[in-house]
C-alpha cells in the first residue's frame, strides 16, 4: 500500500511539472484538477505566484484563468456528488457532515462564499460535495465560488507583484487572517442587511395590527 502511494505521488508530481511548462494553460488545468478530485503537489496558488512573478503584466489574466479552472473543477465535483448522493460524503465524519449541512441551510450562498475564501486546512471540498449532495442551487453555488476564488487569486497576484518570490511566505503568514477577516466582514454585512430588512416589515405589521 505504501509503495502504491509513493508511485501515485510521484506520478502526480510529474504531472504537475508538465502543467507548469504549459504556463497559463497549465494554471487553468492545475486549478481545475485540484478543485475537482485530483489533488496535485504543485497547487494553483503556488503556480499563480510563480507565473505572476515572472510576468507581472499578465497578473489579471492569470487570476481569471485560475478562477475559471477552479470554478470548473468545483462544478464537476458538484455534479459527481449530486449523482453519487450521500455516498459522496462517506469519507467525512457524521459530525462534519451535519455541521456543514447546518451551515449551508442557515447561511445559504454565504457559507459557500466564505468556504471559497478560507485557506487550507479549511475543508473546502466538503462544502462543494455537500452542495452537490443536497442539490444546492448551481447558479448561486457557481457565483459564490467565482467571487471567492477570484478575490483569492487577485490577492496572490498582487502579493507576487509586490514581494516577488517571497510572496508565498507572505501569503502563508497573513492570508489566514485576511481570509478570516474578510469572511467575518461578509457575514456581518449580510446579517446586518437582513436585520435592516426585517425592521421596516415589522413596523408595517404593527401598523396593520393597530389599524
Helix share bin: over 70%
- How would you describe the shape? globular
Provide a count of the helices: 9
**Total beta strand runs:** 0
Main sheet characteristics = none
SS content category: mainly alpha
Through-space gap between termini = 75 Å
List the helices and strands and how they pair.
Layout: H1 2-21, H2 24-35, H3 44-54, H4 59-84, H5 94-107, H6 109-117, H7 124-133, H8 138-163, H9 167-210
Helix pairs in contact: 1-2, 2-3, 2-4, 3-4, 3-8, 4-7, 4-8, 5-6, 5-7, 6-7, 6-8, 6-9, 8-9
Report on this model:
The protein is an all-alpha fold and 211 residues long. The protein contains 9 helices and no strands. The protein has one domain. The protein is 82% helix and 0% strand. Helix 2 runs parallel beside helix 4 and helix 4 crosses helix 7. The longest helix has 44 residues. It is globular.
Please sum up the structure shown.
This protein is an all-alpha fold and 211 residues long. Helix content is 82%, strand content 0%.
Which tags fit this structure?
single chain; 211 residues; mainly alpha; 82% helix; disordered N terminus
Amino acid at each position: 500500500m505504501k509503495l502504491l502511494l509513493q508511485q501515485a505521488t510521484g506520478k502526480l508530481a510529474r504531472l504537475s511539472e508538465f502543467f507548469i511548462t504549459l504556463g497559463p494553460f497549465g494554471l487553468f488545468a492545475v486549478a481545475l484538477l485540484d478543485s475537482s478530485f485530483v489533488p496535485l503537489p504543485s497547487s494553483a496558488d503556488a503556480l499563480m505566484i510563480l507565473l505572476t512573478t515572472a510576468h507581472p503584466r499578465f497578473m489579471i489574466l492569470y487570476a481569471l484563468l485560475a478562477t475559471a479552472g477552479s470554478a470548473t473543477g468545483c462544478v464537476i465535483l458538484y455534479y459527481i456528488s449530486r449523482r453519487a448522493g450521500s455516498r459522496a460524503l462517506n469519507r467525512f465524519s457524521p459530525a462534519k457532515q451535519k455541521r456543514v449541512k447546518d451551515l449551508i441551510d442557515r447561511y445559504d450562498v454565504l457559507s459557500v462564499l466564505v468556504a471559497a475564501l478560507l485557506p487550507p486546512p479549511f475543508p473546502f471540498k466538503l462544502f462543494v460535495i455537500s452542495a452537490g449532495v443536497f442539490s444546492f442551487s448551481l447558479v448561486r453555488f457557481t457565483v459564490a465560488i467565482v467571487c471567492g476564488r477570484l478575490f483569492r487569486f487577485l490577492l496572490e497576484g498582487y502579493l507576487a507583484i509586490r514581494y516577488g518570490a517571497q510572496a508565498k511566505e507572505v501569503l502563508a503568514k497573513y492570508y489566514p487572517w485576511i481570509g478570516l477577516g474578510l469572511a467575518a466582514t461578509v457575514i456581518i454585512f449580510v446579517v446586518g442587511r437582513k436585520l435592516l430588512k426585517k425592521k421596516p416589515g415589522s413596523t408595517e405589521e404593527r401598523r396593520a395590527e393597530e389599524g
